[in-house]
């Protein structure tokens, strides 16, 4: 874990612009797509750590392939929807979640979201109907094929051709259902007639695409994350504690809720030591600062225990900062920002990295290698062994609910929780992280999109680039309700008592 883990340069640089001059004609949109994809390629080439990453030679090859494919779409663009699709095609070919570009077009410029009257969910090995309006396929029906093609083939083309990463199990849970959503991508053909399996019987239905209803939007929101809980702790039954952590990028109200939970864990630790189970609910979580999960691990297992295991886990990991002019200027600017925010520790951290990057840039080095104060020689022979002064061991079963979109600081949380044998993952496979981190967003000259540029790369990180976490317990219920998740926990507790 890098020294910057607690300053998650959540650090997305926001460059304010007066508002882009929008293209007016088909030729204007085409020109904008070509120029922006070319500019995104060039900025990535100059600043992204992957360009010079010795352990990832595929990055540069993928970036060049992304440019070629993106431009092959860009020359066919005639409107905003085509512009978005071309940039998405560029992103997918890079095959890295922390690279590419994100458009900043207002929704009003794009066609309204359409659906065929039902919402689907991916549950491990197939696509099922979650819910349907009157006349639609029955809830629970498996989607087999559309227009004579297996549904997996259509998902691969229509969905993963423009978003997500097809080889990440978690992305199937999150992205595959979007095969039945349409935002006007001109480079795909939406399904027209599909075959379903209901109770072993096959039926066919013609699809009628219309603007998604309010009910459809609600089903869509609940489709892969289930119910959304506020940050906080509950006790769904006596002696079972449920810690909801839907974000690691909390607002002030959520920060207060996290502090209240941490206070309760400290004051009533004995209750958790003797509990039947503790559930850590990461549904909805899409990252933020890894500080929060570290603090909760320390509250449960003890700070010294966590520190030793985390240090041992990352003992061979080093952090290389890509010392381009743009990245160096960005990190240098963080010093002032964090100073103004009175984040003294963070400002000092940024100053150290900034000075190192400036020196590397002056020497012509591609990277500044951050020196980690913890070395293997300073670690105990067995980082997992208890030491004098440790609090009583926390052995209560811990169930960590993992959603398919879990990435970034959400994965950092699983890294830490998984260092303890009483933790068990439940739910879906996670997404995967790039080894490229501390992202900044640079607005393109057009004002229509931003380029995603990480400032650093983790070298020898135990969790590899593209590596996902697989749950010990898959929850394949159509509804990811609190009740269904609790049922899966209770079933496992009973099994372990037998």
UniProtKB/TrEMBL annotation:
<dbReference type="GO" id="GO:0008236">
    <property type="term" value="F:serine-type peptidase activity"/>
</dbReference>
<feature type="domain" description="Tail specific protease">
    <location>
        <begin position="244"/>
        <end position="429"/>
    </location>
</feature>
<protein>
    <recommendedName>
        <fullName>Tail specific protease domain-containing protein</fullName>
    </recommendedName>
</protein>
<dbReference type="GO" id="GO:0006508">
    <property type="term" value="P:proteolysis"/>
</dbReference>
<dbReference type="InterPro" id="IPR029045">
    <property type="entry name" value="ClpP/crotonase-like_dom_sf"/>
</dbReference>
<dbReference type="InterPro" id="IPR005151">
    <property type="entry name" value="Tail-specific_protease"/>
</dbReference>
<dbReference type="Pfam" id="PF03572">
    <property type="entry name" value="Peptidase_S41"/>
</dbReference>
